Amino acid sequence: MRGFGFAEHGGPERLGYVDVPEPPPAPGEVRVRVRAAAFNRLDRFTLAGIPGVRVDLPHVLGSDGAGEVDAVGEGVADVKVGARVLINPGIWDGTCEACRAGSEALCREYRIVGEHLQGTATRFVVAPRRNVRPLPDGWSFPQGAAAPLVFQTAWRALATVAGLRAGERVAIVGAGGAVATAAVQIAKLLGAEVAVTSRSAAHEGPVRRLGADAFLRTDEAHPLDRVLWEWSGKKGVDVIFDSVGAPTLPLSVRAVARGGRIVVIGATAGPRAEIDVRTLFWRQASIRGSTMAGAREFDDVLGRLARGELRPVVDATFPFEDGVAAFARTDAPDRFGKVVLLGPPD
Ligand SMILES: [Zn+2]
C-alpha cells in the first residue's frame, strides 16, 4: 500500500510516497482504514532522524488518524468492523512497573504511532484495541484526526503535571503550534486566566475566539519575560506552557511566579537553554517535562471533547496526493490548528 513518508532521513526534500506492506491485525489489535491523518511537529523530527530512535525504512509519517475499523485481530470481540473510530497514537506495553501503577505515559517501552511505528498517512494502520476509541457523534474524520496527540499532550501537561488550579494565571508561549489551540481551551476549562504569546499578529483573532483572555505580542522591543511580567501585574505567571525551548525557556524562568511551574512539552526552536538557577530556587519554581499522556488522561480529555467542552481546530484539509503541500503548510506562519491529510480514496 502507498503511504506518505520517506525512504531516507533528511529534510522535506526527502518526502514522498513510499510502498509498505499492508499490516495484518495481530492478536489484540484493530486495523483501521484511514480516512484522515494529521501531522505534528514530531513528524519533522522523525523525518530528520531522532538520535536513539530506530525506524524501519521506508517510513510512513502521521501520528494522528481517524477512519473505519477494517478488521480485528484474535481476541478482539467488542469492536465492530465499519465502526467510526479515532486512534490514540501513544502505545504502552501494559506490563512494566509504570503501566501497572497506572502511569502509562511513563512506560519504559513507550512508543508513538508515526515515530517508532509506521504512521497513519496511508490506507491501513494497526493499533492495540485499547488505543481505538469511537469517533465522537457528529465529528468528521478530519476532526477526529486533529484531536488525539495535541489534546492529550496539553491535558497531561496542564492538568496533571502543572496541577493547574482555577484562578491561576497561565501563559501559553507561542500560538503557532496546534498544541497551543488545545492548551488555551484546556486552561480556560480548568478555570485559569489565559494569555497566549506570539510573534505574529495573525494569531490574535483565532486565539481570542478560542477563549484566551489576553494576546501578547512579543518582538525585540517587547521580550517574552517583560511582557509576561507586566501581564501578571508584576507577580509572575503561575503556570507557563513552553513548547519553544532554547530561546524562550530562560525568559520563562524570569517570568514565573513564586511557587510557579514551567511545563516544557517541546523544543521546536532548539534544545539547549541556559537558565539563571538563582531565580528558580528563590521563587521556589519548578521546571517539569511532559509528553503525551496515560490511558485515563486520554479518556478524560476525549470525554470533554465528545461533550463539546473542547473542540479540535482544523487549519486545512488536503487530498491524499497532496502530502508535500500539506506538510509544507505545517510551517506556514499563519497556520492555526491541525493540518489534515485525507486517506487514499477507495
Ligand atoms: Zn509500560
Provide a descriptive summary of the structure in words.
This protein has two domains: 2-147 and 312-342, Quinone Oxidoreductase, Chain A, domain 1; 152-289, Quinone Oxidoreductase, Chain A, domain 1 (Alpha-Beta Complex), CATH 3.90.180.10. Strands 3, 5, 6, 9, 10, 17 and 18 form a seven-stranded mixed beta sheet that branches. Strands 13-12-11-14-15-16 form a six-stranded parallel beta sheet, with helices on both faces. Helix 4 packs across helix 5 and helix 4 (148-161) crosses helix 10 (295-306). It is globular, with a radius of gyration of 20 Å. Helices cover 26% and strands 26% of the residues. The protein is an alpha/beta fold. The protein has helices spanning 41-48, 97-100, 141-146, 148-161, 178-189, 204-209, 224-231, 249-255, 277-282, 295-306, 323-329; strands at 2-6, 15-19, 29-38, 59-60, 64-72, 84-87, 90-91, 111-112, 124-128, 132-134, 169-173, 193-198, 214-217, 237-242, 256-264, 286-289, 314-318, 338-342. It starts with a strand and ends with a strand. Bound molecules: zinc ion (ZN). Zinc ion binds next to helix 2.
